[in-house]
């Protein structure tokens, strides 16, 4: 394809496919250098950084080629709608889910367990042992129940975030994966 390969751009947090473009070696190099996703525009016959006219840039998170080296997966963070039509994606999908961040958070938690530092709260929980981690989940569960009885969204959301975080730490401390919990939920759903 005259040195061009398809580049699929995926939201690094939501996992949604945002768009597809083409890259050559020069576009790959500029993307890595600038941190902004750059394509080779076949219609303009030049490099084109997504967002150069709209301001809706796409920030590079990672870039890998497939097993055959004939396509590229670009994981990125969009700064606004990606499509020229104003849609979140070029496939007219809404891109609002942030649940993909849980996988990033899980990776950070795993790293804190295997590479602890003195300044990491997460590493300090692991160092205190499973009883302390489980205790923190219990404390956060009680706190979210208390906040649920009131009508302060900010406090409730803070406790919800604390509970989710500590629950993920507990799973890691036990050596279990969130996917295993999802398997249980999926299995239960199938039985309905």
From TrEMBL:
Q: Where in the cell is it found?
A: Cytoplasm
- Every Phosphoribosyl-AMP cyclohydrolase domain range: 19-92
Region feature (Phosphoribosyl-AMP cyclohydrolase) = 1-101
> Does the keyword field hold Cell division?
no
Spell out the GO cellular component terms annotated for this protein, sorted alphabetically and separated by semicolons.
cytoplasm
What gene is this protein translated from? hisI
Q: Return the HAMAP family for the record.
A: HisE, HisIE
The pathway this protein participates in, as annotated, is: Amino-acid biosynthesis; L-histidine biosynthesis; L-histidine from 5-phospho-alpha-D-ribose 1-diphosphate: step 2/9; Amino-acid biosynthesis; L-histidine biosynthesis; L-histidine from 5-phospho-alpha-D-ribose 1-diphosphate: step 3/9
Q: Which UniProt keywords apply?
A: Amino-acid biosynthesis, ATP-binding, Cytoplasm, Histidine biosynthesis, Hydrolase, Multifunctional enzyme, Nucleotide-binding
- Protein's UniProt name: Histidine biosynthesis bifunctional protein HisIE
Q: Which is a Pfam family this sequence falls into?
A: PRA-CH
Q: State the family it belongs to.
A: In the C-terminal section; belongs to the PRA-PH family.
Reaction catalysed by this enzyme: 1-(5-phospho-beta-D-ribosyl)-5'-AMP + H2O = 1-(5-phospho-beta-D-ribosyl)-5-[(5-phospho-beta-D-ribosylamino)methylideneamino]imidazole-4-carboxamide; 1-(5-phospho-beta-D-ribosyl)-ATP + H2O = 1-(5-phospho-beta-D-ribosyl)-5'-AMP + diphosphate + H(+)
Q: Give the source species.
A: Algoriphagus aquimarinus
Q: What is its main location?
A: cytoplasm
An example Gene Ontology molecular-function term: phosphoribosyl-ATP diphosphatase activity
Q: What class of enzyme is it?
A: hydrolase
Q: Where is this region: Phosphoribosyl-ATP pyrophosphohydrolase?
A: 102-192
**GO biological process terms held by the UniProt record:** L-histidine biosynthetic process
Keyword Cell membrane belongs to the record: no
InterPro entries the record matches: His_synth_HisIE, HisE, PRib-ATP_PPHydrolase-like, PRib_AMP_CycHydrolase_dom, PRib_AMP_CycHydrolase_sf
Give EC number(s), comma-separated: 3.5.4.19, 3.6.1.31
